[in-house]
Amino acid sequence: SVGFKAGVKDYRLTYYTPDYETKDTDILAAFRVTPQPGVPAEEAGAAVAAESSTGTWTTVWTDGLTSLDRYKGRCYHIEAVVGEENQYICYVAYPLDLFEEGSVTNMFTSIVGNVFGFKALRALRLEDLRIPPAYSKTFL
């Protein structure tokens, strides 16, 4: 039996962007993801990008007030983990505009605060994080 049934939105349509070229100013995260049975890796990676940035499982009235492209996280690359069944490294790029300047708390709350209990995933672990100089300089 499938342990997850997709919600109202298919995250792949908006948050999986394999053609995206990362910017020097993006915060880049690498997550080890184990999707629930029946959930494709692209949907799992896109769900992490969505839920750790601007996504929600349903349409809300504020959707039209901001530019989604400006703030959304993007799952831009997925690799299978060698020797592990149904495990992937999902690479997610976050635009700097998503985060409050000079706030580690805000950054980590956004990136890891909401995604670890997400039902589409059996397991999730943040493996690596690249913080660009443009964001580091906001702490001076």
From TrEMBL:
Quote the catalytic activity from the record: 2 (2R)-3-phosphoglycerate + 2 H(+) = D-ribulose 1,5-bisphosphate + CO2 + H2O; D-ribulose 1,5-bisphosphate + O2 = 2-phosphoglycolate + (2R)-3-phosphoglycerate + 2 H(+)
Q: What are the subcellular locations of this protein?
A: Plastid, Chloroplast
One GO biological process from the UniProt record?
photorespiration
UniProt EC number:
4.1.1.39
Q: Name one GO molecular function term.
A: ribulose-bisphosphate carboxylase activity
Using the record's annotation, list all stretches that form the Ribulose bisphosphate carboxylase large subunit ferrodoxin-like N-terminal domain. 15-135
Per UniProt, the keywords (alphabetical) are:
Calvin cycle, Carbon dioxide fixation, Chloroplast, Disulfide bond, Lyase, Monooxygenase, Oxidoreductase, Photorespiration, Photosynthesis, Plastid
Query: Per its UniProt record, what Gene3D superfamilies does this chain match?
Result: RuBisCO large subunit, N-terminal domain (3.30.70.150)
Q: Is Chloroplast among this UniProt entry's keywords?
A: yes
Cited InterPro entries: RuBisCO, RuBisCO_lsu_fd_N, RuBisCO_lsu_N_sf
The GO cellular component terms are: chloroplast
- Member of which family? Belongs to the RuBisCO large chain family. Type I subfamily.
**Protein name (record):** Ribulose bisphosphate carboxylase large chain
Q: Which organism is it from?
A: Dracaena maingayi
